[in-house]
């Protein structure tokens, strides 16, 4: 199990690569929900998402061990985080991306110095290829979410929220790495309830926690592509069983509404996965909980939305 001390060490390691992002109050979403709502803006993080935190922590440790090259698989944000971190540390990075990855994310990954290999119809096939290359060429593999150092890096967000006295923190859930790290960091210091948000039909975490074992779901195209992960990680599953207070799978229509309202009312460009917490706030599932007059922090995990997708949505 990852410790609070591991996250503190990660926070020191990633300084200079990742930045501390702002926390802002939202008058509009506070009024809409009857609560005091704040946003943690990881869409303003370097590379446009939180992923650089975990990548930087993992790569820094690998560099200390003498590694000069890494490989990973990603549909976008993790790819950019690894490429940027590797370049910052003077390391080489190869990223296997599925053929359906957006042109913007492919070009961004290349611009950060990553070598991109397009392979497979989805993330799962890209992941298998990256693992194969890693094994054949003895190159260190960076898992997007099922890795202790990556999770500890993502947990540094929790350190930046610990002194804010939040009652609830809403976190997007894909493979589970982000919510795992944040939950450990916050639960060790605060009484905040940690709520995970998935996009239907990618409800692997909610189903796994309910059934007591990891459940794999069928892939389907959704607007929240950053959390469209069919199967959560083994390490995140064990952490979430102990630290997370609830996980909800929310209909895609609320994600679309959240992206639009964040742009219109908060002037924030947010991708589908990044809007998960706001989608939950707008949903019938949130209304059923009857949460009122509480301090809520919503983690806006990324802003790398495809421009054509945003145009279509608007």
CATH topology of the largest domain: Rossmann fold
Mean pLDDT: 96
Strands, total number: 10
**Ends distance:** 43 Å
Q: What general outline do the C-alpha atoms trace?
A: globular
User: Approximately how much beta-strand content do the residues carry?
Assistant: 15-25%
Return the CATH class of the largest domain: Alpha Beta
Tell me the Rg in angstroms: 18 Å
The biggest sheet, with number of strands, parallel, antiparallel or mixed sense and barrel status, is: 6 strands, mixed
Instruction: Indicate the CATH architecture of the largest domain.
Output: 3-Layer(aba) Sandwich
H/E series: HEHEHEHEHEHEHHEHEHHEHHHEH
Q: Could you list the spans in which at least 5 consecutive residues all have pLDDT below 50?
A: none
Number of helices: 15
Helix content: 40-55%
Structural class: alpha/beta
Number of domains: 2
Numbering strands along the chain, what is their spatial order in the largest sheet? Answer: 1-2-10-7-8-9
Summarize the structure.
This protein has 15 helices and 10 strands. It is of the alpha/beta class and 314 residues long. The termini are far apart.
Structural descriptors:
314 residues; alpha/beta; Rossmann fold; four-stranded parallel sheet
How do the strands and helices of this protein lay out in sequence?
Elements: H1 4-14, E1 23-25, H2 27-33, E2 36-41, H3 51-64, E3 69-73, H4 77-88, E4 92-97, H5 103-111, E5 115-118, H6 123-137, E6 140-142, H7 148-154, H8 156-159, E7 168-172, H9 177-187, E8 193-199, H10 204-211, H11 234-243, E9 246-250, H12 252-266, H13 276-282, H14 284-289, E10 295-300, H15 307-313
């Amino acid at each position: 199990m990852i410790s609070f001390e591991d996250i503190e060490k990660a926070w020191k390691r990633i300084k200079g690569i990742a930045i501390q992002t702002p926390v802002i109050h939202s008058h509009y979403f506070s009024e809409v929900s009857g609560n005091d709502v704040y946003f943690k803006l990881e869409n303003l993080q370097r590379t446009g998402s939180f992923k650089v935190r975990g990548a930087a922590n993992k790569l820094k440790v690998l560099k200390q061990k003498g590694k000069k090259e890494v490989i990973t698989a990603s549909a976008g944000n993790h790819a950019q985080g690894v490429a940027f971190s590797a370049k910052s540390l003077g390391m080489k990075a190869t990223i296997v991306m599925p053929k359906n990855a957006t042109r913007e994310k492919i070009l961004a990954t290349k611009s950060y110095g990553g070598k991109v290999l397009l392979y497979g119809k989805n993330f799962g096939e890209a992941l298998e290829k990256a693992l194969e290359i890693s094994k054949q060429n003895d190159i260190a593999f960076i898992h997007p979410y099922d890795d202790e150092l990556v999770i500890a890096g993502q947990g540094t967000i929790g350190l930046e929220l610990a002194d804010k006295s939040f009652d609830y923190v809403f976190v997007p859930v894909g493979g589970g790495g982000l919510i795992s790290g944040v939950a450990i960091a916050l639960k060790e210091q605060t009484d905040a309830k940690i709520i995970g948000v998935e996009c239907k039909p990618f409800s692997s975490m909610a189903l796994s926690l309910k059934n007591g074992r990891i459940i794999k779901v069928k892939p389907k195209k959704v607007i929240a592509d950053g959390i469209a992960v069919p199967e959560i990680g083994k390490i995140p599953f064990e952490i979430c069983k102990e630290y997370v207070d609830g996980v909800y799978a929310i209909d895609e229509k609320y994600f679309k509404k959240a992206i639009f309202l964040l742009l219109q009312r908060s002037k924030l460009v947010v991708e589908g996965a990044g809007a998960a917490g706001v989608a939950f706030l707008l949903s019938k599932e949130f209304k059923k909980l009857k949460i009122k007059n509480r301090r809520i922090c919503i983690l806006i995990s990324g802003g790398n939305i495809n421009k054509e997708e945003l145009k279509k949505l608007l």
